[in-house]
User: Fold these one by one.
Assistant:
Number 1:
Amino acid sequence: MNALRAFLVGLIAALAVTAVAMAQGPAAEPGPVRVIDLDGGIDPVTAQFVERRIDAAEADGASAVVIQMDTPGGLVSSMREIVADMEGAELPVAVWIGPPGARAGSAGAFISAAADQLGMAPGTNIGSATPIGSGGEDLDAKVRNDAAASIAALAERSGRNADAYRAMVTDALNLTAEEAVARGVAETIQPTLEAYVAWLDGRPDRGGGTIATAGAPIEVDALPWYLRLLQVLTDPNLVFFLLLIGLAGVGYEIFNPGAIVPGVVGAISLLLALAGLTVLPFTWAGLALLALAIGLFVAETQVGGIGALAVGGVVALALSGAFLFDSNDPALRPSLWVVLLVALVIGGAFALAARLVLRARATPSATGGAELVGEVGTARASIGPGGGPVLVNGEIWSARAPEGVAIPAGGEVRVVSIHPDDLTLTVEPRRG
C-alpha cells in the first residue's frame, strides 16, 4: 500500500508540473543582441545613428545593445548625445572595443566609461581623451577640468576606476587592453564579438538587473553608405560653400534663363547643402543673411552700379558665416578665415562683373547688321552683280559684288557695306 500510495502521489505531482508547464506555454526565446558598429569619427551623423538604433532595439524587444567601437574620437557635442542615449536606454548598453587593433580614443573613452560593461579585444587601447580645439590646439584649464570631471563621474556610476579615466583627460593617459583590465578601466578581454556577447550573460547592469544574452541571436547594424556620404557633408566649411554655390547658381539662372549649367550646378549644390543642414544645428538668420548676400551680388551685376551693392553683399556674407551654425563647438562652425576669404573673392568677382555690365551699356550698339562691315566671310556660290549667298559670322546672308567683279564659290570676301532696306551685303574679294 505504501508503495502504491507513493506511486500515486508521484504521478499526481508529475501531472501537476506538466499542466503548469503547458499553461505557461513554451519558454520564450531571448531577444536579439543588437550590435551597433561604430567605426570612425564621432560626429552628428553617428550620434543620430546610435540614437535610432538604440530606440529600434528597445522597440524590437532586444535583450541588450553592444556598441562595437573603433574610433579616434570626434566632436564633444556628438559624444555627449551618445552618452545621454546610453544612460537613458531601457535596456543594457555594453561596449566592446574591437576588433583587434581598434582603439577608443578621445570621445571614445567617454562612451566606454558610460557602458554597463566594457570589454576590449587583444591589441586594442583606450585613452588620450584630452579635449582639443578644431585646429588641434589645446583648450584652457576650465574646459579640461570640466571634461575630466565628466568622464570621472561616468566611470564612478559604472563602478570603474575614476582616477584612471580622469588621467585620460588631464594627462592623456592611454592604456592597452591588459593595462585597462588590471587598473579597473575595463572588465574583460575577449577575442571576438561573439565571445564578448557570451561573456555578458549573467553580468550586472547599472540598473541593478542582470544581462541575459545566452542563446540570443546577434544582429549587427553598420553605418549605411548614404550616412557615410552624409558624414562628408557635415563639414561646416563645405556646407557653407555648397550653400553659396547653390544660391549663386540658382540666382544666376533666374536672372539669365537658358544658361542651364549654372542652374544645374546650383541646384545640386543646394540639395547637398540642405542634406548637411539636416544634421548640423543651423539658424534661419544665417540662411537669410546668406540669401541676402547672393541677392545683393546678383543685383550688382544687373544695375551695373559703383560697387555699393557688392560691398553690402560681402558684409552680409561674412555675417552669415558667423551666424549660420548655432553651436558652442568650434568644430561645428565654419572657419572665420574661410568665410572672409570666400566673401572677398565672391564679392570681387561680382563687382568685376558689374563693371563689365556698365562698360557694355556705355558702348554704342550696332543695329541693322552694321556691325558686319569689315567682317570676312566665304562665298557659298558664285557671286556677281546679281548676288549670291555668303557665310559671315556663322550666318548666311544675301550678298552682291560691285559691277565688273566676280567672286567664285568658296572664295573669301570682305563686307563693304549693307543695304538698309533689304539687308543685302555688298562684298568684295578679300585681298591679303
Number 2:
Amino acid sequence: MLGEHGRGTLEHHRLWPLGVNGDLQPGRRGGDVRLVFCGTLSKAFGGFGGIIPGTRRFIARARSASHYHSGASEPPIAAAAATARAIGLLSRRPEMRENLRRNVRLVREGLRDCGLDVEDTPSPVIGLRIGDAANMRRIERQLRARGILVKYMESYAGVGPEGVLRISVFATHTAEMIEKLIAAMQEAL
C-alpha cells in the first residue's frame, strides 16, 4: 500500500529508482553500492512465501550466490496462483490502495480521539500498548465479544514484555466497521 504505485517502503521514500535489484552499472551515484529488496507475500497479498524481484541477471546472480534458494521449496500451486491473482487485482484496481489509505487514516484518527497515543504513519498495522498484558487481554476479549478481532500478541519483534494489541486495517473495511471498532474501543477503555 505504500508508495504511489504500491511498491512499498522503498517507493514511499523515493528510493526505488536507485537501482533496486538491478544490474550494477559502473559510474552510477553510489558506485557499487545499491539496494537489495525482498518481501513477503503473506501479509498484504494473503499469499505464501517471499519474493526477490529483479532483472533476470540479478535473479540469476542471487540464485547462484545463495544456498537458501537451493534448499527452498516452491510454494503450493494454489497459493502461488492466489498470490498472482491478488497482485493482478491490486495492479488493476489502484482505488483499493486509496481505500486502504483512507481507512488507515480513519482508524488512527479514531484511536487518537479515544485518547490513545497513535503514531501518524501510513502503515495498515497498528500496535497499541494499553497498560499491562492482563489489561490488553481483557480488551481483546471484550472486542471479540462484539465481533471485532484485535489480536493480543504476547511477543512480536520490537515489542516489550507487556505485549501489544495488533490492529490490521484492510481496504475492504467499511466506514461502519471502523466506527464500530472505535466505539467498542472507547467502551473497552
